[in-house]
Amino acid sequence: MASSKVIINFSSESDMQGILREIRRRNITGLQWIASEAWATATLLWEKFEDLLTGTLGFAIRRADMIPGLEEHLTSLRPSDIHKSAFLAEFWEEMFNCRLNGSVNSHSHGVDNYLDRLPCKGTESLDDVYSPYSDVTQLRVSYNVYKAVYLVAHALQDMSDCEGGKGPFSNGTCADPKHFKPWQLIHYMRRANFSALGEEVNFDQNGDPIAYYDLVNWQRSPDGSLHLVKVGFYDASSPAGYSLVINDSVIQWPVGKQ
């Protein structure tokens, strides 16, 4: 890549919108953005600032290929399933521009008046629209939640299987699975070692997960949408000097930079 202005940015997605608006107002171009995980996969930024963000490189939370049954569950939701959840009700009403019967929502994120909306018909389907909510092609934060649930489950299982005299606490004692303390559960969580969707999940001596990030490149798909191309990764468990791997032959640089 030719010499260019490289900007490493740790802002949130909302803060980036303000920054990019000002950059556009000042007609600044040719920037090479390096995104933190806070906005490395923020597709909404692409919709507004594609011209400024093509070629961005970002360190993103590791992506999962698939969580079995998740897409089917998300797209099967209907108004009767979600009207009791304030979050899902608000999402549904904003997505389909309607009002749910008995909804606790009372405002609109758009320019329209919420109370002027027509009632939801009950036939709306997430199969008919695109939404980041039901997009399972970029499971990153969701994958971390998935692993966290399994981590707690494995820790509780290990606690239940503990044999008196062979436990991890003083004098080989075990925690009582029905009346354990939070610090006891954390102890078992730090010792957990299991596989989730083909990935080995383990922790360092401090109980922290091993740092792993996908290096993604923001490229334009033929239909104009954002295509997050994995062009490398960072793996803290690799030997010194091999933690960061980059395949620069597949990177698309900002317009005008080669």
Automatic annotation (TrEMBL):
Cellular location(s): Membrane
Main location: membrane
Keywords, comma-separated and alphabetical: Membrane, Receptor, Transmembrane, Transmembrane helix
Domain Receptor ligand binding region: 4-221
The keyword Membrane is annotated on this UniProt entry: yes
Molecular function in Gene Ontology: G protein-coupled receptor activity
Pfam families named among the record's database cross-references: ANF_receptor (PF01094)
Any one GO CC term of the record: plasma membrane
Annotated Gene3D superfamilies: 3.40.50.2300
Tagged with keyword Cell membrane: no
Name of the protein described by the UniProt record: Extracellular calcium-sensing receptor-like protein
Source organism of this protein record: Lates japonicus
Lineage: Eukaryota, Metazoa, Chordata, Craniata, Vertebrata
